[in-house]
Amino acid sequence: MTIIYAIANQKGGVGKTTSTINLAAYLADAGMRVLLIDIDPQSNATSALGFNKNTVEASTYDLLLGTAQPQDMLLCHEESEVSLLPANPALAGAEVELVNMMAREYRLKTSLESIAEQFDYILIDCPPSLSLLTINALTAASHGVIIPVQCEYLALEGLTQLQQTIQMVRQHLNRRLRIRGLVMTMYDARTNLSRQVVQEVREHYPGLVFRAIIPRNIRLSEAPSYGQPISVYTPNSAGALGYKVLAAEIIQGDMSK
Amino acid sequence: MTIIYAIANQKGGVGKTTSTINLAAYLADAGMRVLLIDIDPQSNATSALGFNKNTVEASTYDLLLGTAQPQDMLLCHEESEVSLLPANPALAGAEVELVNMMAREYRLKTSLESIAEQFDYILIDCPPSLSLLTINALTAASHGVIIPVQCEYLALEGLTQLQQTIQMVRQHLNRRLRIRGLVMTMYDARTNLSRQVVQEVREHYPGLVFRAIIPRNIRLSEAPSYGQPISVYTPNSAGALGYKVLAAEIIQGDMSK
Ligand SMILES: Nc1ncnc2c1ncn2[C@@H]1O[C@H](COP(=O)(O)OP(=O)(O)OP(=O)(O)O)[C@@H](O)[C@H]1O
Ligand SMILES: Nc1ncnc2c1ncn2[C@@H]1O[C@H](COP(=O)(O)OP(=O)(O)OP(=O)(O)O)[C@@H](O)[C@H]1O
Ligand SMILES: [Mg+2]
Ligand SMILES: [Mg+2]
């Protein structure tokens, strides 16, 4: 049974791409067969794994419009063994093109049916919006959504809106959609703000916040410039440890179900 | 002559809202009459100035759909004397509703005509996407776009896409649109990464990067929880100084034209 998670939060810069890449790498490190899907027009996950978004043969844009199959675009990051369905900038136009298409919210879910069983985990990196691209990811997410939450005041603001969108999708598009968990990111132990935000999120979402907390760590922001996940770039850094512990917590939770 | 700037960058979390609020506050501090327009469905600028996005009478959503005038929603932040056209979550639906409307890209620009001359500066805070909301802001921006660039590798990635969108808007919608300047944000003097990113951006955009550099400063991320711009919250902080210097540089450049 393939486990599909959407990594989503419409607040920008909270660590969605960083979490998707590094969680994928440590799930693979633990022996899982992992596919990362990039549906953000910025294509950050694609380039942070060392691929050139402007030269990929086909992308998730073609997948959503039905002009290509997953097999036509499947890439593999050798060192981490994470497979990838890349994005490219053409995705910026997908929103307007999808609006009037049949079954516009199900296009990602249906297009994955032919390859899903090759993988144990599929992680979908979302853009910073609640647009049709993110709705497609939430509809395809068989096991729920993982929400990165930056340890900042402004990041708290948007959680209610995200929750409302998740409820709408659960009602109309994907009955099984639930919050798999919230992961606190860019935690800075030197500031009160980080501690306050973690406490506040734990109070609002009891039992849903992962124990693993991702610290602010410069290695995490350097790794993309080398085209590597943190598990390859600096496996002994605090940032790497955070994601390794998160991957173990997620596997443990999934296996006990 | 009212000067209208869009504050835009589709990369998330780079400091668009923080720059819009604090630049607005220091322009007002310098004696300018300033209007801040929030067109982000997250409504971060609205709440960071202490207003409740869920209870505002009318918002920029109503403005874009033509069901309200600016006068119906105009608010004022007392302490900083910055006026505001607030956003609210309904904006998340504007994209789909605008797609089939007449003159959909000009709706913000036309709706401002009745109030523009009351202000010396109008700053528009954009969402993290190149959607119709951001296109509306770029079309209304009479004097150009200010681009916050976070001192991170992933933030470099998206500048080309943004430049292409600016060129498209200049060709089809707003002949006067240009890059007014790039402002480097969250600069951390302790890391090589920050220095490298600043150098790289200066090389790619010669003469367009503001001399003022905004340091990473915890006070800037605390201020929104008090509903205050940095000029009111901690005017002596390094973050406040960064935006004060930026405002002076922008005024000086505008006056010498
Ligand atoms: N724990 C961390 N410590 C330090 N830097 C981090 C950490 N997590 C992410 N970053 C950096 O912060 C920036 C934002 O992270 P990232 O791009 O992953 O967020 P995002 O939510 O995917 O952004 P977007 O909304 O644009 O898609 C990036 O430059 C990234 O390298
Ligand atoms: N110079 C700075 N130093 C420290 N923190 C900062 C600085 N600038 C912004 N921040 C914090 O970083 C986070 C991202 O900034 P902000 O929300 O302004 O970016 P944005 O580009 O508007 O994000 P979005 O793409 O979601 O609209 C916020 O929590 C903000 O408080
Ligand atoms: Mg991202
Ligand atoms: Mg913002």
Characterization of the model:
The structure is a homodimer of 257-residue chains. With 257 residues, the first copy, chain A, is of the alpha/beta class. In chain A, helix 1 (16-29) crosses helix 12 (238-255). In chain A, a hairpin with a 4-residue loop joins strand 3 and strand 4 (82-85). A 7-stranded mixed β-sheet of chain A has the order 3-4-2-5-1-6-7, sandwiched between helices. The radius of gyration of chain A is 17 Å and the shape is globular. Chain A is built from 12 helices and 7 strands. The mean pLDDT of chain A is 97. The first copy, chain A, has helices spanning 16-29, 44-48, 60-65, 94-98, 107-112, 132-140, 153-157, 159-172, 192-204, 218-222, 230-233, 238-255, and strands spanning 3-7, 34-38, 75-77, 82-85, 121-125, 144-150, 179-185. The complex binds adenosine-5'-triphosphate (2 copies) and magnesium ion (MG) (2 copies). One adenosine-5'-triphosphate sits between chains B (12-18, 40, 42, 44, 128, 185-186, 214, 216-217, 220-221, 224, 239) and A (11-13, 128, 152, 154-155).
Features:
homodimer, 257 residues, 7-stranded mixed sheet, 12 helices, binds adenosine-5'-triphosphate, binds magnesium ion
